[in-house]
Amino acid sequence: MDRGLDVFNTLPADEARAQLLSCCAAPDWAAAVAAARPYGDRAALAATAREQLSGLPWPQVLAAVAAHPRIGQPPSGEGREASWSRREQAASTGGDQHGDDAARAELVTLNDAYEQRFGYRFLIFANGRGAGELAAAARRRLHHDEATEQAVVRVELGQIAALRVGRLVDDLTPTTASNAAPLSTHVLDTATGTPVPGLPVRLDVADPHADGGWRTVAAGRTDADGRLRDWAPGQAWTCGGYRLVFDVAGHLGDAGFYTEIPVAFVVRDTARHHHVPLLISPYGYTTYRGS
To answer: What's the pLDDT tens digit per position in 42-101?
Structure first.
């Protein structure tokens, strides 16, 4: 049984579309893929992700392309889409960002030439492709006419979307108590005296090699009681620095002072349960080590 696919198949339509937009930033594409649920397996989901790009209106294709970073210039953001882009581009050269300085310089030049030629960003399925192959593809595609290149862009975008829907299902796969980290949180609104359901929470681990010094290892939402537990993978739970990042903007709204609240802490005993609650109000918050 594919538990992640089961979760995806049963998401509310609005949430499914929102989740899919991180795979391809085209609203009509996200709506079509969400509407085709339930999927019997991941292969069917990936096939639909590719197929729906073939007839997508070109302005939406352009919007989806614009959401991707330039090849050779991974984004510095912390969201899911930025993380996936870094992962895909790093996979092309084992993390060397497309090889040596000469290769990077050539990619910059080719990106510029492509954008001047077609008026939009050069997009390619970079996962597993080396710098030489990426540059050769860019040079070759510079000679395409408009119709030919638009067809290629749809195929490349479809391959990226198919890869990302698989990763989305991975992210949605529930963990169990046996393989989850001993970490939980509980979010309460002190202004209303009620729990905060559906609040996005991200777990980052301190990593000196990551952009900004933090690397995301788990993401989830609080349940109907404002709790989140058995959500962080146990195999990634080691001694060191962590932070929980609570995305409170949607809950607090325009009256709120905070948009997100990071709570950094240190794990010194991986066998001990770490409960990190958060009490929030429009103008203040409190956190503490719970049990």
So the answer is: 899 999 999 999 999 999 999 999 988 888 666 555 555 656 665 555 544 444 444 456
Q: Is residue 263 part of a domain?
A: yes
Q: Which residues of 235-272 are buried (b: 16+ CB within 10 A; e: fewer)?
A: eebeeeebebbbbbeebbeeeeebeebebeeebeeeee
| Structural contact between residues 279 and 199, judged by C-beta atoms closer than 8 angstroms | no
Write out the DSSP string of 90-151: HTTTTTSSSSSHHHHHHHHHHHHHHHHHHSS------TT--HHHHHHHHHHHTT--HHHHHH
**What domain range is 232 assigned to?**
183-287
- Phi, psi values for residue 228, rounded to 5°: -145, 120
| Residue labelled with tokens 């933090």 | 214
Residue ending a domain, choose from 172, 199, 223: 172
> Taking Cα atoms as reference points, which of 285, 280, 69, 102 lies closest to residue 193?
280
Q: Report the CATH number at residue 39.
A: 1.10.3330.10
- What 3-state class would DSSP assign to 171? helix
H-state helical runs in 219-271: 249-252
CA 15 to chain centre: 15
Q: Are 46 and 23 in contact (CB under 8 A)?
A: no
Q: Give per-residue pLDDT as tens, 22-38.
A: 899 999 999 999 999 99
Structural domains of the chain, count? 2
